[in-house]
Amino acid sequence: VWAVVNDRVIETALGYFLAPLGTMALGVTLLGETLTPLKRVSIGFAGVAVAVLTVSYGRMPWVALLLAGSWSWYGLTKRRVPLDPIESLASELFVLALPALGLVAVGWFRTDGIPSQATGADWVFLFGTGAITAIPLLMFAFAAQRVPFTVLGPANYLVPLINFLLGWLAFGEDLPRSRVVGFALVWVALVLVTADMVRNRSSTERRVPVPIR
User: Fold this and answer.
1) Higher-confidence residue: 211 or 152?
2) What's the pLDDT at 148?
3) What is the dihedral of CA 83, 87, 93, 98, to 10 degrees?
4) 85 torsion bin: left (phi>0), alpha (psi -120 to 50), beta (else)
5) What share of the chain is helix, strand, coil (3-state, %, to 5)?
6) What does the radius of gyration of the chain's CA atoms come to, in whole angstroms?
7) Taking residues 43-50, what's their average pLDDT?
8) What is the reported pLDDT for 62?
9) pTM for the whole thing?
10) Backbone φ, ψ for residue 173 (5° rounding)
11) Closest residue by Cα to residue 22 from 83, 64, 79
């Protein structure tokens, strides 16, 4: 949210593009999953991309790295928590309820707070963010305990693609050539991961014996 309101939507896209690769790294280092040669190459491309984008931004793209790292760790936490999706999401809500109410109380009486500025339509959108947030998190919690991390990671491509297009086309954020090169390296990494995943799945399906009736 902070990045969006501070004109860093494209950087959030980078973070979510990097998140699948971060998820794979956690799967290998902490869950004992194995990397194929193509996936190793893809992580190398991601490292080069971060270096290129650091030069392009003139600083480390910390918003993107923080998003990628926190989202990958969130998935790992979901995998290790022995709760079903509804219980897991409910536990998050219970933990965050008091801090959230405190923030609401502080902002409620500010002159630039929501109550002093919101119209009827604004209130509808505001309360709608609860469902928009909770439903995808519930679905993610369901998937995180059932899907291998090396498969779960590449499934998150749509969010960064939409963010990238919004930042570039809708919000008019800067996209110099050097930044495009950095994103292209990330996209190459994701293409390699996807191709490897499809190839391995096809190979597995060919090896499954067909029962004779």
Assistant:
1) 152
2) 76
3) -90
4) alpha
5) 80, 0, 20
6) 20
7) 90
8) 92
9) 0.72
10) -75, 155
11) 64
